[in-house]
Design a protein that fits this description.
mainly alpha; binds tryptophan; 336 residues; 52% helix; Rossmann fold; Tyrosyl-Transfer RNA Synthetase
Length: 336
């Protein structure tokens, strides 16, 4: 398949159930890109093992994430979805990049500093994480990477690695740029921090309607609205922000006005949100259910994705080895 469109690469960690932060902040954006770019989307299991995990659960996590991505509308006919560890070239290129990456820059990464702070022991993998990420992207010579702001620094390092390698061994890698969509920052049900598995403040993408209701029931609203008849400020309320993603304009205007005049309480406002959210996500739940019953189809898609990526990856690595003087061109004929 020859494809002249610009190449896009992005990765997502199989850290557990996909949640609304993943969906609104990343996945939905990925779906929109498949018509305009040659998109490679990767389930980055080799990144996920850096955090403490249970080996017997990993296969399920990868499968569930694949199901969520496909159910969200990633069409395997129009993009390539694969699992990182199915393409060993990622780690191969990461090793090569390690040799041109200054240690000091890795130690300066905000994510590394945040995750290593106060820890007695920190693995080399945590430090090396962004080098594997650079390898993910550059292995396919992708020019564009849809990521949120929290990944800009890692992407800058990818550019730096590409530049250093190119200067040392010859022009091969493009410097990948972030592709900033209209991806909003989604806060968790605590209304305080970004929705994430580790913060324990998520609403799962595939939650059934009653679970959506339960998660929203405990969600934090405008903290100044203590009593039912205190007027609220919808613009500081995460529930109102979520209405913006799931409820029709009429409902949004209604809850906005009635919150400000204290003629609707938070409980009712959340109920309205829960019902629109459940309805909006119903087709995704439905598709996920069908996919879960057909694992052969899911694995078939991942296998086909890996097969394509291995071809692309091998081609890059052959050139890498060639430029680096590692390619075996003249194998001496065995004596005798
Ligand atoms: N580090 C990214 C995250 O945590 C995941 C990731 C791994 C990634 N490799 C990538 C994102 C390559 C973009 C491109 O969100």
């Amino acid at each position: 398949m020859s494809d002249r469109r610009q190449r896009v690469f992005s990765g997502i960690q199989p850290t557990g159930e996909a949640h609304l932060g993943n969906y609104l902040g990343a996945i939905r954006n990925w779906v929109e890109l498949v018509d305009d770019y040659d998109c490679l989307y990767c389930i980055v299991d080799l990144h996920a093992i850096i955090t403490e995990y249970e080996p017997s659960e990993m296969q399920e996590r990868v499968f569930d994430l694949a199901v969520s991505l496909l159910a969200s509308g990633l069409d395997p006919e129009r993009c390539t979805l694969f699992v990182q560890s199915d393409v060993p070239e990622h780690t191969e290129l990461a090793w090569i990049f390690n040799t041109v990456t200054p240690l000091g820059e890795l130690g300066r990464m905000t994510q590394f500093k945040d995750k290593s702070r106060g820890r007695e022991s920190v693995s080399a993998g945590l430090l090396d994480y962004p080098v594997l990420q650079a390898a993910d992207i550059l292995l396919y010579r992708a020019g564009l990477v849809p990521v949120g702001e929290d990944q800009f620094q890692h992407l800058e390092l990818s550019r730096d690695i590409a530049r250093r390698w190119n200067v040392r061994f010859g022009e091969l890698f493009p410097e990948p740029q972030p592709l900033v969509g209209h991806a909003p920052r989604i806060l968790g049900v605590d209304g305080a921090s970004k929705m994430s598995k580790s913060a324990g403040n998520t609403i799962p993408l595939l939650a059934e309607p009653d679970e959506i209701g339960k998660r929203l029931a405990t969600a934090v609203t405008d903290p100044d609205r203590v009593r039912r008849n205190d007027p609220g400020n919808p613009h500081v309320c995460n529930i109102f922000a979520l209405h913006g993603h799931f409820s029709p304009a009429g409902v949004r205007e209604e809850v906005e006005a009635r919150c400000q005049t204290a003629t609707i309480g938070c409980v009712d406002c959340k109920r309205k949100l829960a019902s629109h959210m459940a309805e909006d996500l119903a087709p995704i739940r439905e598709r996920a259910r069908a996919l879960r019953e057909d694992p052969d189809r899911v694995y078939g898609i991942l296998d086909a994705g890996a097969a394509r990526c291995r071809r692309l990856a091998r081609d890059t690595l052959e050139q890498v080895y060639e430029h680096m003087g590692l390619a075996r061109r003249h194998v001496p004929a065995p004596a005798g």
